[in-house]
Amino acid sequence: MEWYQQYGAVYRTGGCFGQDFLSVADPKALQYIFHSSGYRFPKTRDARRIMNAFVGQGVATVEGNVHQRQRKILGPAFAASQLRLFLNVFQASALKLTEKTYEYVGKGKEVNVLQWTSKTALDIIGITSFRYKFNSLDDGQTELMAALNNIFGESQMWPTTWELLFSALWRILPEWVLLLLERLPSRDVVRLKRFRDVASKVSRHIFEQQLNEVTNDANPSEKDVVNVLAMSYLADDAKKKMSDLEIDSQLATFIIAGHDTTANTMAWLLYELSRHPEVQAKVREEIAIAKYKAPGALTSNDYDAMAWLNAVIKEVLRYHPLAYGLFRKAAQDDFLPLAEPIITSDGQFCSEIPISKGQVIFASVYTYNRLPSVWGDDAAEWNPRRFLEDRGIKQESLGVYANLMTFSAGIRGCIGWRFTIMELQSVVTELLSNFEFKHSEGSTGAAARPLRASF
């Protein structure tokens, strides 16, 4: 944010080996890159290689017509009508998490929030997407859970000089050289390869186990992920068919996406509520009223009607995006329009920026999500009230949810964003109905991470 304050929402930086990056947080420029331009700004080669390393050629990795085909096939599994069928699974898993938390608290143990939200998220993605019970909340550490734990780990938080150089080399070296480099035992390569191997083994076992059951399903109206993939596997039409490799890749993609996003967001949400007890009290009161009025279990409409609950979810997604930025590369010479004109180094006033084919762009999710021009003068603060007030700020139509860039945007917007929101609503509601979250004693400043909380 310091560079944004000094240089504006678009600025150029240098990288290793003379590489050149254009950092972009301007809402109009992002709208152009992610919406108006279709596939003219694909992922960079290194970004695709990283994605391919741990999830293969899934919907989060591929580009162009292949991405279009895969997304169209998978679409029914993430329709709002289908997701509402999963609400009881979200609620049952949230209840199980609550029971486990009571068990730990009753024994005077400290609860590792991220560990348990991770287990909950994995159990939910297993049942809803694959009709498979991982039983992570019951059985503790499974092989898949071990591979998921800290998948990026210290190599992302505290990279060595070699790891920084290795990442930079991915952008410029020939493919055959990269294949040799990938054999070197860096921490990233070891972790990603382990997850890919375990996820492939587990997902293939699940898919083969469920294929016969799914194809003979007495209720074909249910279009969960494994059902959709089974239909695609058996399809004769090339436009509706996926290969074995594509199916394995989709399964790995949804395991990592459905697990990582929700678990980390949940941990940050509980952390922020522990820092803002007055907000936590308002959400808890709202939940109590909704439960009192509901004749039975809460419905998706009940969750959507809770203004404070949803404001908190939006604010934590804004303030703590899982991905701080997205790398893209210009496929042709182009111009980026700007919502906030800039003054160039030679003193010119610009409302659009010319870019050359091959220009690497870093779309800064973190900076966009904290722009005062979009979110108000208090954008640097965690304040869910911004989503409850009409601040009269005109915004570009950008993100798929609450105009945030957290789930990306446009044709590459996260296909499972509704799934994540419904899961967050269900789990937060159950936890706040039973517990009060407070800081662990002694956790202050930078040392306070969303890993542990006392109740």
TrEMBL record:
InterPro entries linked to this entry = Cyt_P450, Cyt_P450_CS, Cyt_P450_E_grp-I, Cyt_P450_sf, Cytochrome_P450_monoxygenase
Superkingdom as given in the UniProt entry: Eukaryota
Pathway membership of this protein? Answer: Secondary metabolite biosynthesis; terpenoid biosynthesis
Q: Chief location of this protein?
A: membrane
Give the subcellular location. Answer: Membrane
A UniProt-annotated Pfam family: p450
Entries under SUPFAM superfamilies matching the protein: Cytochrome P450 (SSF48264)
User: Which terms does the record give in the GO molecular function aspect?
Assistant: heme binding; iron ion binding; monooxygenase activity; oxidoreductase activity, acting on paired donors, with incorporation or reduction of molecular oxygen
Provide GO CC annotations from the record: membrane
What residues bind heme, as annotated?
Answer: C414
Cofactor list = heme
The alphabetical list of record keywords is:
Heme, Iron, Membrane, Metal-binding, Monooxygenase, Oxidoreductase, Transmembrane, Transmembrane helix
What is stated as this protein's family in its record? Answer: Belongs to the cytochrome P450 family.
Q: What protein name applies here?
A: Cytochrome P450
Species this protein is from? Armillaria borealis
